[in-house]
Amino acid sequence: MCCFRVRDTFGKQHNNLMKLIMVLCVSAWGFVLQGNAQSKPFTAPSDTIKVVVNNDNMRVTEYISTPGKDVCGKGKHAHPAHLTILLSDLSVQLTTAEGEVKNLDVPSGLTFWSEKETHMVLNKGAKGTRVLLVEVK
């Protein structure tokens, strides 16, 4: 029984370490993409939501938005806890679940963690936006 607990604890720690390594790798991938995007201005061809990675460990979704459209989901929507990687500059209007409205200008390359949330985010800028959301399963 004692040996089982040691293995079980090691297994959980190993799984958490692997998840952390995967999130860091995806973050690095996002910075590489963001660095390439800096060399030419991003113009969104159309609004798209595309799952680029989906496996047992994570789901990475790319959101592309044109001016005046939703940025990371349709209308008021929810996300589980996730890492956000901005691949373009954003000028957005964020409406929280409580109805609080915030206008934000955020730079390309910003990466941040969010706990589960419900919101609505509109592209208020003159250019397209590109965002990656990484959900650890």
Oligomer: single chain
What CATH architecture do you see?
Answer: Sandwich
| CATH T-level topology | Jelly Rolls
Mean pLDDT equals 80
Q: Strand share of the residues?
A: 35-45%
For the CA atoms, what is the radius of gyration?
Answer: 17 Å
* Structural class computed from helices and strand pairing: alpha+beta
Q: Report the sheet with the most strands, covering strand number, pairing sense and barrel closure.
A: 5 strands, antiparallel
What topology, given as strand order, has the largest sheet? 1-2-9-4-7
Terminus-to-terminus distance: 28 Å
Q: What coarse outline follows from CA principal-axis ratios?
A: globular
Fourth-tier CATH superfamily name: Jelly Rolls
The level-1 CATH class: Mainly Beta
Instruction: Give a count of the beta strands, DSSP E runs of length 2 or more.
Output: 9
Helix and strand succession?
HEEEEEEEEE
Helix share bin: 25-40%
Q: List low-confidence stretches.
A: 1-10, 36-42
Number of helices: 1
Return the domain count.
1
Structural topology:
Blueprint: H1 2-38, E1 48-54, E2 58-65, E3 77-79, E4 82-86, E5 90-96, E6 101-106, E7 111-114, E8 117-123, E9 129-136
Antiparallel strand pairs: 1-2, 2-9, 3-8, 4-7, 4-9, 5-6, 5-8
Structure write-up:
This protein is an alpha+beta fold and 137 residues long. The two termini are 28 Å apart. The protein contains one helix and nine strands; from the N terminus they run αβββββββββ. The longest helix is centred in the N-terminal third of the chain and has 37 residues, at 2-38. Helix content is 27%, strand content 40%. The chain has one domain: Jelly Rolls (Sandwich), CATH 2.60.120.10. The chain has one helix spanning 2-38; strands at 48-54, 58-65, 77-79, 82-86, 90-96, 101-106, 111-114, 117-123, 129-136. Mean pLDDT is 80; it is low at 1-10 and 36-42. It is globular and about 40 Å long. The strands form two sheets. Strands 1-2-9-4-7 form a five-stranded antiparallel beta sheet, covered by helices on one side. It has a four-stranded antiparallel beta sheet with strand order 3-8-5-6, with no helix packed on it.
